[in-house]
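Workshop exercise sheet. Pairs work together: one partner reads the sequence aloud, the other fills in the structure field after running the prediction. Swap roles for the next sheet.
Pair: D.N. / O.F.
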Amino acid sequence: MHTIVFITILLLSLLMFGTIFKLTRWLHPVEILLLFLFTSYICQNMFYTTSSSYDRLSVTTEHLPFWTVRMQFGIVFAVALMWVVGIQRSSASRFIKISVIFLWMTGGILIEKGFLLVGILTSKGPSWYPSVDYFFEMTVILGTILFMESLPKWLRKDGLV
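Structure field:
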């Protein structure tokens, strides 16, 4: 089962990478690069923060689950978050913008639950509280939106855009 999930996440990662260039409608290529580095870092740290500070979620010790989780949090979530940010910059309605944010957060919870069910993630404690993950995901989204709002000013100041 781990092999199937790994291949699925690998294909999804490649597919997501292929969509990055469509973000040029809303973001400058330099912004896309910096935003990817930022979102990848912050999404991976979100997982490590929620899994390492107390008995909660952890990755099994096998290689495929290890790389599956890294691809999921480092690429799939990061690129999906870039799309959330791109839509925030678009002329979409406020309802669409808020819906996309909640879709990203709910998707993260469902992926973690799926990883728990197939044994890629394990829970050391008696239970898993998705509300903790929602809190961290809201923090990630707010931090990313603030970063995205500040980034064009910094790039213009340095003459990069």
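Discussion prompt: DSSP finds five helices and two strands in the chain. What would you look at next?
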